[in-house]
Amino acid sequence: MRVLWQISCGLSEIHKAGVIHRDIKPANIILDAAGIIKILDFGLSRNKGADAHTISRIGTPAFMAPELWGQNDISFDQSVDIYAFAVMAISLLKGGRIPGELKDFPPSQISSGGLDSFFSGFPSDVIRLLEACLNSNPKSRPSSFEIEKMLKKHLLHNKHRALLVAGDKEHELHQGSLQANIAISIVTGKQIGRAHV
Questions:
Q1: Which of 23, 41, 116, 168 is catalytic?
Q2: Quick check: pTM over 0.85?
Q3: Residue 51 annotated to the active site
Q4: Burial of 44: CB neighbours in 10 Å, binned 0-12, 13-18, 19+
Q5: Regarding beta strands 37-39 and 183-188, do their DSSP bridges make them parallel or antiparallel, or are they unpaired?
């Protein structure tokens, strides 16, 4: 999930810049010496808007969204990268294996629950999100920012750490200790109050 989150962060930055990558696949993802994921090969990329069309089927077949399989003038948007992201996620997790529906040219719609066996152990809302990425209707796919946000939420769940210092006492908050009761005396003029955190 951490690798997918890093890829989604890169994809969010690409999309924020108004670019459609158009060739998201495992071969265009590398892990650098510092352990940071990089997205490579912008040879098929287009700018969002008027530049986002082609007159032929170009891309890597298994990773191409259904709308890229048109006959003549083909228009597309950043949702083609979202579709490819989900296929790539399956491929990375399963050593290149992808569901049969995605091997059709053009690909068929994945049924609800069709990814459950591929993502066994993943949270169900992440699996549903990846299924939504593969929706045949580009407008029904989530954005790269929604994907990044969902993955980050799961990566950070119960990973917080905080140190509360009151007087000479320290209280650490973390997964095993989610609460701290602290009494603080506040002196303001003639009033004395107590606060509980």
A1: 23
A2: no
A3: no
A4: middle
A5: unpaired
